[in-house]
């Protein structure tokens, strides 16, 4: 009797194949996937044993086909992720290579040394302007100097840093600080 149950299900699938295909296509969004799932369903109905009590053979067959389709989709996603891993070495690493990292650290040290070599007030004005984003008027008020003096010292400090970073001779730049107005 169990063989006849499987045969009955196979016969139902064959007789109503187009109906099953339309319903699965609507459910899965792909006619090809629906067809492939129905074919695998047909193959899975060639088995031994008792299918148990099947109250709704149509729903039973649709559930088998839908489960097969979902398994195929999961497997496809896993394969896709695997291919992404295969292509990952081709993607450029945004991190700097060791040589560039060492060069950046050396450049940073040069900048820090150049800033330290500025006179105290010029250094403080540069830091307040560039790092703290203080307005020129606020800096002038903090140091009790005019805005024009802030602008002049800031310009001078930047020129000194540029010269130092371009490896120009800036010996004594700290001793030749701008004259305050």
What do you see in this structure?
The chain has 181 residues and is mostly helical. The protein folds into two domains: 2-90, no CATH class; 98-165, Arc Repressor Mutant, subunit A (Orthogonal Bundle), CATH 1.10.10.10. The chain is 71% helix and 0% strand. It has eight helices and no strands. The protein has helices at residues 2-15, 17-28, 31-44, 57-87, 98-116, 120-130, 136-143, 147-165. Helix 6 (120-130) crosses helix 8. It is rod-shaped. The chain starts with a helix and ends in a 16-residue tail after the last helix.
Write the layout of secondary structure elements.
Elements lengths: L1 H14 L1 H12 L2 H14 L12 H31 L10 H19 L3 H11 L5 H8 L3 H19 L16
Summarize this structure as a short list of keywords or feature phrases.
71% helix, 181 residues, Arc Repressor Mutant, subunit A, rod-shaped, single chain, 0% strand, mainly alpha
Instruction: Note the total helix count.
Output: 8
Query: What is the tally of beta strands?
Result: 0
Choose one word for the global shape: rod-shaped
Distance between the termini: 110 Å
- Specify the helix fraction band: over 70%
Strand content: under 5%
* Radius of gyration based on Cα positions: 39 Å
Outline the low-pLDDT stretches: 168-175
Along the chain, the helix and strand elements come as HHHHHHHH
The profile of the biggest β sheet is: none
Structural class: mainly alpha
Query: What is the residue-averaged pLDDT?
Result: 83
**Count of discrete structural domains:** 2
């Amino acid at each position: 009797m169990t063989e006849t149950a499987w045969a009955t299900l196979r016969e139902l699938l064959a007789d109503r194949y187009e109906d099953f295909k339309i319903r699965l296509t609507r459910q899965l969004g792909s006619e090809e996937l629906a067809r492939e799932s129905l074919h695998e369903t047909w193959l899975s109905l060639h088995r031994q044993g008792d299918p148990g009590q099947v109250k709704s053979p149509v729903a039973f067959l649709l559930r088998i086909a839908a489960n097969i389709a979902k398994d195929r989709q999961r497997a496809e996603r896993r394969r896709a992720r695997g291919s992404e891993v295969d292509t990952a070495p081709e993607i450029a690493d945004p991190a700097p290579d060791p040589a560039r990292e060492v060069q950046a650290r050396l450049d940073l040290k040069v900048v820090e040394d150049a800033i330290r070599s500025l006179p105290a007030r010029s250094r403080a004005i540069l830091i307040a302007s560039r790092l703290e984003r203080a307005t020129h008027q606020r800096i002038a008020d903090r140091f009790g100097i005019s805005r024009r003096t802030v602008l002049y010292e800031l310009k001078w400090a930047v020129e000194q840093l540029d010269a130092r970073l371009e490896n120009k001779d800036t010996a004594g730049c700290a001793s030749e600080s701008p004259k305050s107005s």
